[in-house]
Amino acid sequence: MLERLNQAMEYIERHLDQQIEVAELARIAVTSEYHFRRLFSALAGIPLSEYVRRRRLTVAGAQVLAGEGTLLDVAVRYGYSSGEAFARAFRAVHGIGPGEARRTGAALYSQPRMSFRLIIEGSGSMRYRVVEKEEFRVVGKKARVPLVHEGMNPAMVEFIRSIDQETVRRIAGLSDQEPQGIVSVADQVGDGREEGTELDYYHAVVTGADVPEDMDALDVPAGTWAVFENSGAFPQALQYLWRDVFTQWFPSNPYRSRPGPEISRTLLSQDGTQADAELWIPVERTTD
After folding, report:
1. What is the average per-residue pLDDT within 58-69?
2. Which residues contact 198 (CB under 8 A, 6 or more apart)?
C-alpha cells in the first residue's frame, strides 16, 4: 500500500503543471478516491489539495526567482487564469508577491516533496475487530460543529451541555445494540479533514427504534465496520486512536475506509482525565 502511495506522489511531481485528478491518484494507489483522500490527510497532516497547491507554488517560486519566463507565463503554467490570481496565491504561501520576490530575490517558503514509510515501533498492539452490521439508525440530537484535531472541541462541549438531562436519559433509553449507550457520531466530514471543517455531530445512540418527534436521526445502511479500542488520557486517547488507525492499521491490513459516519464511544474516569475509547470506522475489503 505504501509503495503505491509513493507512486501516486511521484505522479503528482510529474504533473504539477497539469490538472491532477484524484481519480488517477486513487487508481495508482489501487484504492477509492474517498479512502485515498482520508489516508493522505492522516499520513501527511494536511489535505491533498493543500499539499498540491503548496508544491506547485514552491516550484513556481523557484522559477520566479530564476527569472524563467514572464510572471504570467509562470502563472499559466501552474494553472492560474490570471496574473492577479497567481499573485494572491503566491502571497498567501510566500508572504510576498511574485514581482517583489523576483526584484529582491526574497527568501521563499518551500513545501518539501513527501514520501511515506511505515515505522514499526513495537511499543504496543492495537485492539480491533471487524463487525458486520445490519442497517441501523443513529437517534439523538444533532449540531454542526468544526473539526478539531487536538484538545477539547469547544463547540461540541457547549452543544452537549445544552442538552438537558431528561433528554439525555430519553436518548440513552433508546439504545438497543452495539455500540451500547450514548455515542458520538461524526458524519459529512470533508474528505480532506481540514481543521475547522464543519461536520454533522450527533450526541446519540445506535438503535432500531422509531424516532421521537423532538430528536434527530441518521439512517445507516448495512455494512462492514472495523472497531478499535484503546485507553489513555482524554481527549487525546480518542484523537490519537483515529490517527493511528489511518497511519498504521490501514496501510498494514486488507481494508480501506468507505463513506459513512464515524462512531465513538467513550467511558470517562471519575475525574474525567482518563478514558476507555471505542472507535467504529466503516470499511470494505480491498480486492488485491
Report:
1. 89
2. 144, 145, 146, 147
DSSP readout, the chain?
-HHHHHHHHHHHHHTTTS---HHHHHHHHTS-HHHHHHHHHHHHSS-HHHHHHHHHHHHHHHHHHHT-S-HHHHHHHTT-SSHHHHHHHHHHHHSS-HHHHHHHT-----------------S---EEEEEEE--EEEEEEEEEEE--SSS--HHHHHHHHHS-HHHHHHHHTT--SSSPS-EEEEES--TT--TT-EEEEEEEEEESSPPPTTSEEEEE-SEEEEEEEEEEETTHHHHHHHHHIIIIIHHHSSEEE-SS-EEEEEEE-TTSSEEEEEEEEEEEE---
- Given this model, what pLDDT does residue 3 score? 84
Higher pLDDT, 46 or 19: 19
| Neighbour count for residue 8 (Cβ, 10 Å) | 22
176 grid coordinates: 438497543
Report d(CA 19, CA 33) in Å as an integer.
16
